Every structure is written in C-alpha cells, then in structure tokens.
Amino acid sequence: MGLVIALNKGRIFKECLPLLAACQIQPSEDPDRSRKLIFDSVSGGHKLIVTRSADVPTYVENGVADIGITGKDTILEYGESMSFYERLDLKIGQCKMMTAGPVGVAEPEHVLRVASKFVNITRKYYQAQSRQVSLIKLSGAMEIAPLLGLADCIVDIVDTGNTLRANGLEERETICDISTRLIVNRASMKTKFDEVQALIAKLSAVVDAIGEEALGNNDQAGQ
Ligand code: AMP
User: Fold this and answer.
1) In degrees, to the nearest 5, what angle opens at C-alpha 146 toward C-alphas 144 and 150?
2) Are 37 and 132 part of one and the same domain?
3) SS3 state of residue 142
4) How far is the CA of 192 from the centre of ligand 1 (A)?
5) What does the pLDDT look like over 160-217, one tens digit per residue?
6) Residue 156 Cα, ligand 1 centroid: separation in angstroms?
7) Number of folded domains that form the chain
8) Which protein residues touch ligand 1 with a CB less than 6 Å away?
9) Residues 122-152: pLDDT tens digits?
10) What is the pLDDT of residues 44-79, one digit of tens each?
11) Ligand 1 mean position to 95 CA, how many Å?
12) What's the CA gap between 176 and 143, in Å, rounded?
C-alpha cells in the first residue's frame, strides 16, 4: 500500500534521508535539486512530504500522513491534545531545551519576562514551578530579546551553545532533552499495522547499529 511520511524541511530531512535509505525508502528525485515538496519513493509506493516542522504533527493527526518525523520540541509545543503515537527516538538532532540569560546578570525582582517561540513548553515549565512569568512570543532570533531589553531571559534550543555565547548569553536551566522522533497516526496504526511496524523495526535496527558504531569509534579513540 505504501506509507505517507511527513518530515521537517532542512536539518531533519537531511539527517533522515540516510536512515530512510537504509530502510529502502528513497525519494525518486534529488530533493536538493528539486523545488518539489512531495516525493514518490523509488520503490514501495511510499510518499515523502517535506514541510515546516510545526505542520508535521498536524499532517499526522489529520491522517494526511501515516508517519511523521520531527523534533521532540515540535511535539511538545504541539500540546497535550496530540492524538498520535510517538513510537521511536531516532537519536539524531540531539540538543536541549534551555533557559538562558545575559552573562552574569542575576534574575530581576520583578516578574520574569521570558521570550520564546516555544510558548507552550515555556508556560508549562514555569507553571510546574508555580512561578509567575510574563511570556513574550517571538518567531525566531530569541537571543536578541535580552540584548534589546525586551525580555530578561529566553527559552530556546541549545546545541553547542555557540549562538548563546555569540549574543552574550549563558545557559541557565535545562528544561528537557530533545531529539528527532517518529510519530504515527492512530488510524494508520490499525489499517497499515504491518507496514508501520516493519518500518519502525527497520529504523530502530538502523538507529541501534549507528549507536553501536559510534560507541565502537569512541572506544577506539579512547585507547
Ligand atoms: P548552537 O549554537 O549550536 O547551540 O545552536 C543553537 C541554535 O541552532 C538554536 O537557536 C536552534 O535554532 C538551532 N538548533 C540547534 N540544534 C537544533 C536541533 N537539533 N533542532 C532544531 N534546531 C536546532
């Protein structure tokens, strides 16, 4: 029957292509040379939809896609009402969701002003601590908000920490670990059970093999 798989544009798409190729799912055209956003697979009758991260859960929830591949940040930000299954950690795109503020500046006495594009994650984090904060929604480039006096701190994704440092910010609290996850539409889990399970099993084996190879390389480097 074939599966419809929705993926994030950009980094996740690039990192996922080799994983999917190892499961015999390959786009029929080179995505780097095409402006298309829907690709047929070379074999197996699958389709790959390349979309914005925030839309991946929407496509999966509504059954337009059977499978979605997106960051845990996107899944958490999508909210509690999510009616899909999260089934696999692909262990790529690993980073952290953190709070960050200007280097050496203590938190203010007044209600903390927090800028983020991850407003749901931010609200939940401070609510869990019973801390009242003033949330400022931005669409990107959160790092400049404290520099410009718009906010006291930010909530953002941190990988190497270079972006924070370049903007005079330092890491404060870790909210959660992030990595790329595979999600499944609830109906597809029933109607395409064999295909969905087969893909999860293959991807899981590929992810494990990559992890073991990395461990082996680290051991060799340490010797
Ligand atoms: P870094 O400077 O390495 O800490 O990277 C931080 C910036 O890169 C953040 O502002 C994010 O927008 C982006 N970023 C890094 N890693 C990821 C990831 N795994 N998923 C999404 N965005 C990321």
Assistant:
1) 95
2) no
3) coil
4) 34
5) 999 999 999 999 999 999 999 999 999 999 999 999 999 999 999 999 999 888 888 8
6) 8
7) 2
8) 71, 93, 95, 156-163
9) 999 999 999 999 999 999 999 999 999 999 9
10) 999 999 999 999 999 999 999 999 999 999 999 998
11) 7
12) 19
The letter for the amino acid at 124 is K
Residue 34 domain boundaries:
4-93+179-222
The CATH number of residue 16's host domain is 3.40.190.10
Q: CA 48 to CA 184: how far, in whole Å?
A: 14
Rounded Cα–Cα distance for residues 125 and 145 (Å): 19
According to DSSP, residue 45 is labeled T
User: Would the pTM of this model clear 0.70, i.e. be above it?
Assistant: yes
3-state secondary structure of 161: coil
Helices marked H in the chain: 11-21, 56-61, 72-78, 119-128, 144-147, 162-166, 186-191, 193-222
* Shared-domain flag, residues 30 and 89: yes
